[in-house]
Write a structure and sequence with these properties.
Low-confidence stretches: 1-23
Largest sheet: 5 strands, mixed
Radius of gyration: 14 Å
Helix content: 25-40%
Number of strands: 5
Strand content: 15-25%
Shape: globular
Mean pLDDT: 81
Number of domains: 1
Structural class: alpha/beta
Distance between the termini: 19 Å
Number of helices: 5
CATH class: Alpha Beta
CATH architecture: 3-Layer(aba) Sandwich
């Protein structure tokens, strides 16, 4: 069983604070999560992101075990196939304060149409290489 997310967050905190200053410790000594969500542009007409927001609010899916407050910095699409704009979108979210990028479930799992993005592995690899100080979640719900 993997370690709870908040343990990973605390381990990464000191290094991330030194590099970006993006994480902040709240009054209870926990880190606040500032999240940006990147979603599939092709599914926007079918899904308003409700399940992403419910997962954040109810601490389910990728957010299970997260105890710190979560601030949503932004929710943006990937820019369309083949995902060449995804890096720019991730940099935009990071520039606005996101310390965590969540790739919505429509990207890797293919929700709600059952068709995962055929390009996501490559552009996620590029984003992680370009923004190593950011934490990543491979899905939302």
């Amino acid at each position: 069983m993997p370690a709870p997310f908040y343990v990973t967050t605390c381990v990464m905190a000191a290094e991330t604070i030194m590099h970006t200053g993006a994480l902040r410790i709240n009054e209870s000594g926990r880190l606040d999560m500032k999240i940006g969500v990147i979603r599939c542009m092709q599914t926007e007409d079918m899904c308003p992101g409700t399940s992403d927001y419910k997962a954040i609010q109810n601490r389910t899916g990728a957010f299970e075990g997260v105890e710190e407050p979560i601030e949503i910095i932004g929710h943006i699409n990937c820019g369309g196939c083949p995902g060449k704009k995804a890096l720019l979108r991730a940099k935009m979210l990071a520039g606005r304060g996101a310390d965590t990028i969540a790739f919505a479930s429509c990207i890797g799992k293919g929700n709600p149409i059952g068709y995962p993005c055929p390009f996501h592995k490559k552009w996620i690899e590029i984003i992680k290489k370009e923004l190593p100080e950011i934490r990543y979640l491979d899905y939302t719900h």
